[in-house]
Every structure is written in C-alpha cells, then in structure tokens.
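[step 3/7] fold_predict: job queued, chain A
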Amino acid sequence: MGKWDSLESAPPDAILGITTAFKADDDVNKLNLGVGAYRTAEGLPFVLPSVREAEERVVAEKLNKEYLPIEGHSAFCRLSAKLIIGDEDAHAKERIATVQALSGTGALKVAAEMLHLHSSNKDIYISRPTWGNHRHIFTSSGLTVKEYRYYDKANNNLDFEGFLEDIRGMREESTIVLHACAHNPTGMDPTHEQWSLILQAIKQQNVQVIFDCAYQGYASGDLDTDRYAIDLFLQHGLEVWVCQSFSKNMGLYGERVGALHMVAGSPSVAQALKSQAKVIIRGLYSNPPTHGARVAACVLGDPDLMSRWKSDVRAMAGRILGLRQVLKDALIEAKAPGSWDHITTQIGMFAYTGLNEQQSRLLTTKHHVYLTKDGRISMAGLNDKYSLFLSLCMIWQACMCNC
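[step 4/7] structure written:
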C-alpha cells in the first residue's frame, strides 16, 4: 500500500469550481454569472487600454529578469501606498510599512502569518457572509476565525445594529477584517455616518483593523471615494493594515499584483513590521513577481497613463452601475415577486440577489445559469441583451419556485 493511497480528494473550490463546471457544460445558452472578473459587452476578457500601453512601454525597455527584493518593486510599493493610504502625514513621517504581495490573497496571507506569529490575541473576525477564501486563509495560519453579523437576508440590507453589537463584544486586541468598499459578496456598504459609528466601536474595543481592498475605483468609479473608510480611520489615528489588489481595477488578474500596507505609530515600528513581514515572505515565496508590478508602477507613475487609467476604471464601474438599473427595471417590469431595490443599493462587481441555495441550484441545473449557491451573481457576466433577458427569466422562474 502506497503512502498516499488513503488520501481523499479535496472538494472543488466553491467559487473557482463554478467556472470549471461552466466550461464542462455544452449547452449553447449557458451563462456564467459566477466569475469574479470584468467582461466586455460581448462577454470577453478586457485588457484596459491604459494598462496595455503601460505593458508595451515596459516590454520596450527590454529589462532583465532578475529577482526583486523580498519586499518587492520599490516604485510600485511607494506608488501603491500613495494610492490607497493617501495620508501625507504618514508618508512624511515614514510610518507606512509596505511589501508587495501576490495580489490581495497574498497580502491577506502575509497579514495572517504576522498575526499568528506576533499578536497576543489570535481571534480574527470576518463578516457573515464574506469572500469565500477569507476563512481558509486565516484558519490555515492558525488563527481563530469568528464572525460578526453583517447582512440581513430577510430584508436584503445591512444588519447594522447586529454589526455594532458584535464589535462591542470583541475582546481587546482581536482583529477585524473590513471590506473597504464593494463588500464581497453582498455589495452592501455602510454609509458615511455608519462608518463613523463603526470606527467609534472599534476604538472603544481596541481592535486591530485589516481593510481588504480589492475594488478601489471599481465600486463608485472614483479612486478617492472608494478609500473613504480607510481615510476616515487614519484621520482618527488608527494603525490600520490594508490588503490591496490590482486584479480588478487594473485587470491584472493573472499577474498577481498587490500589496500589504501596515500603518504604524512611528518609523521604528514601521521598520520592525516590514522586517518581520519580509521574514514571512521569504518562507512563503521568497520574493514577488516582477512584470505585473512594473506595469502597475508605470501606470501609477505616469500622469498621462494615470489619467487614462482613471477613465478606464470609470467606464468599467459605469457599465456595472448601468446594468444594475437595467436589471432592476426589467425584474420589476417582469413582475418578479418581492422588492428589488437592493440591486441598485448594492455596489461593485457583484449583486446579492436574495435567492436561496435551492433556487440558485435550479438556475444551474435546469437553465445552465452558473452562480454561487448563496445567490451572488457577477454583474459583468450580463454581457448583452440576450443574456440579460435570459437571466431575468431564470431569476423570475426561481423566485416563483416554492423551494
């Protein structure tokens, strides 16, 4: 008997497995609303023109393929911190420790390992619901994952009172993961007034904050608007950590471009944080990839490309916002039961439809429409009038199903 003969196969990833199942489906009318990537009106992957131009410039330079330092591409680290932190005082006082990471997932993993090794409290709170990979990232680093209430499924709205109550019950020096904008999967963000109350509750409990920011610019169409919560917490002196991804807003999905930014109380603490993060990175993947960081740095460091990139991001966000209104109007016109106001109240790539697991499964098995089991759909997957009409019909039929 071989050493591994008794090893059981792991279940497919709950999110990535949707695309696998979609590709295996030979129905000509199949529709993938599960993919977390932007698509054109024709349903095709999209390379932002500004990013394409930056890549051409990088390739034309004929640079070498040497290793980057453990902390990553220096210009990328500096420019990405400026983009998301925007705190001139923190920059001037060298209180930001930044390391390049393997997109947002890699940044979260480095942060998780930092907490495991150096935090006295191993409790980390994630929203219920949250991105499917959060729990695995933190449990695999030895942290104790707990949840805070976030979404009221009965009313398709934010469970704000439950949210605050759970924060007030957190132990001192616990860690909370907050979605900076375009909450995944619900798309339901707190208002500015609610963010202020969340901030007060967190300060009272002395809780460490990690912002997961995968959608800066992609949510509202404005880069500064989408970092409102981060800026608010910094203005009130919180030493937040930010896990930043350029997969969505630059379309650099396969390049794995991201960063972990740790705001400290002093330059010496920032230096200590960075040195410990480098030790972790050395053991995980030694140093990050070069190409995507060079492309991102080219965009962020060139005023003309930066301006064009902002326009590209506005166009993507605008299309998604427009599709939300079209979807809501069509559902109302089709007399789909219930209220659909949440479709336009939500923001970002995903819409949390309110469909239950059985209804979602019906869409897939009967109508070849692929979505997550909690009813989340990717708005970018609605690629033309036909697919929009098809999805409307399928959602309407699922709503009418007594399952």
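[step 5/7] annotate
The radius of gyration is 21 Å.
The first strand starts at residue 31 and ends at 32.
exit 0
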